Structure formats: C-alpha cells, structure tokens
C-alpha cells in the first residue's frame, strides 16, 4: 500500500493507494495526518510527497512520517523533464501539483488541465509536452480582493449560481468571476484545437461550481493520480 501526500501552503491532503485511490477525508494538517497514521496500523510500503510548502513545514511532515511509519520508503516528487517536459523558461518554478495533474493525463497527448482551487490554473499539454498556462485568483480570492480593497462593493457572500447578468451585488461579483474564468478556459480550448480535438480535465475544490458550464471531465483526484504514476516510476527504477 502507498501513501500519497499533497502538501500545500495551508493544507495537507492525503490518499491511500492499493488497487485504487482512497482519499483520507479526515486529514487536513500534519497533526491530523500523524494522528490518523498512529491510530491505524496500515501496511504502507512507500510514501510519495508533492510539496509546495516552506522548508520548515516540509521538514515537519518528514519528521511526522518517520515517526509514524519508520519502515516506509519516502520519496519527494519533483519536476522531471524525462517523464514530462515543460516549455517553462524555469521548469524548476513550475508547481509540482500542476505538473502531476498533467502527468496523470499524459497519455491523452493533447489536453487542457483546469485546477479550480485557491488559484485557478489552466495548463496546456500538446504532444505530451507542457506548453505553458495561466494562473489567476480563484473564485474566493477574487471575492475577497473586492471585499477588502473596495469600500462600496459590499456583499455578504458572492453568488456563483450561474453566468447570467447580475441584478444585485453578490450576483454581479460571483457571476462575473465565474464567467471570466469560464471564458478563459473556452478561449484556450478554441486556440488549441477546439472541443473535438483537445480533451479538457477539471479538478480542484471549486470544480463542482464550474462543471455545469464547461465541457470537461471531472477528475477530483488528478494530482494524486499523477503522484501515484510518479511513485510507480521511482519504484520500478529502484530509486532511493
């Protein structure tokens, strides 16, 4: 059994992989992960970590894992041009979570990967290579920016029900953000071949909000799918 960990700036997410992926819903922090592992005697052989956290937080996670699972092999997964190359000018600055999401759909060859999270990212895969992408504030960040940086735009909560023209402030903010991000995805799809030739995949915490408006396949565990593929490669090669 493998333990897959996605360590972000504010949260820790984890999945177990045996014959399929199973997300550990109770895990959202290093402390919660440690408590879960100590409470369950899991036969974990290998651990794969994708981290965009600080060095201090990454070290805390490693310490936690060594304490809870002393016999498991630990692999820190990073960008690898031999597995999936990127046209990024500085590939080392490409977020490993974005790279893993693309790795998960690499066999598709031509694809667009949309991650609707705190940041809203759109990445283009062409002939098995990452061409580049876009990073924008997600729905919550756009809402919070308006709420904190303007005095007159007051609303209790943004309304992201649909794309129609807003008739009150919450709808103007929510529908506007939703429509703008949808328009970005649609324009990228059109630029790189249209819906008939390029596959679009959607993941991230806000994916359900976008699903009614995008012709995309919802893959909620896309980063973990890529993480398992990367780990399988390490284990096959015998990497330490």
UniProtKB/TrEMBL annotation:
Binding site for K(+): 115
Amino-acid positions noted as binding ATP in the UniProt annotation, renumbered to this chain: 6-13, 118
Obligatory cofactor(s): NH4(+); K(+)
Compartments where found: Cytoplasm
Predominant place of localization: cytoplasm
Domain of life the protein comes from: Bacteria
Binding residues for substrate: 88, 95-98, 169
Any single Gene Ontology cellular-component annotation: cytoplasm
Coiled coil segments of this chain: none
E.C. number(s) listed in UniProt: 2.7.1.33
Keywords, in A-Z order: ATP-binding, Coenzyme A biosynthesis, Cytoplasm, Kinase, Metal-binding, Nucleotide-binding, Potassium, Transferase
Cofactor binding remark: A monovalent cation. Ammonium or potassium.
InterPro entries for this protein: ATPase_NBD, Type_III_PanK
One GO process term, biological-process aspect: coenzyme A biosynthetic process
Catalytic reaction equation(s): (R)-pantothenate + ATP = (R)-4'-phosphopantothenate + ADP + H(+)
Binding partners and assembly: Homodimer.
Role: Catalyzes the phosphorylation of pantothenate (Pan), the first step in CoA biosynthesis.
Protein name: Type III pantothenate kinase
Provenance organism: Paraperlucidibaca baekdonensis
Gene that this polypeptide is encoded by: coaX
């Amino acid at each position: 059994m493998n333990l897959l960990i996605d360590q972000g700036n504010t949260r820790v997410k984890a999945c177990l992989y045996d014959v399929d992926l199973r997300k550990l819903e109770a895990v959202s922090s290093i402390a919660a992960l440690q408590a879960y592992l100590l409470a369950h005697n899991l036969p974990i052989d290998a651990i794969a970590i994708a981290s965009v956290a600080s060095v201090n937080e990454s070290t805390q996670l490693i310490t936690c894992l060594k304490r809870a699972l002393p016999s498991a092999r630990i692999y820190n997964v990073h960008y690898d041009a031999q597995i999936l190359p990127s046209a990024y000018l500085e590939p080392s600055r490409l977020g490993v979570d974005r790279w893993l999401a693309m790795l998960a759909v690499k066999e598709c060859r031509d694809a667009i990967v949309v991650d609707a999270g705190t940041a809203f990212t759109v990445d283009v895969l062409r002939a098995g290579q990452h061409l580049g992408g876009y990073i924008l504030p997600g729905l919550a960040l756009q809402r919070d920016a308006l709420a904190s940086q303007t005095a007159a735009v007051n609303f209790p909560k943004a309304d992201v029900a649909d794309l129609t023209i807003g008739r009150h402030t919450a709808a103007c903010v929510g529908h506007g953000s939703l429509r703008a991000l949808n328009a970005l995805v649609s324009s990228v799809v059109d630029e790189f071949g249209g819906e008939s030739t390029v596959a679009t995949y959607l993941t991230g915490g806000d994916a359900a909000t976008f699903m009614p408006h995008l012709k995309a396949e919802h893959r909620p565990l896309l980063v973990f799918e890529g993480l398992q593929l990367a780990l399988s490669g390490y284990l096959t090669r015998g990497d330490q």
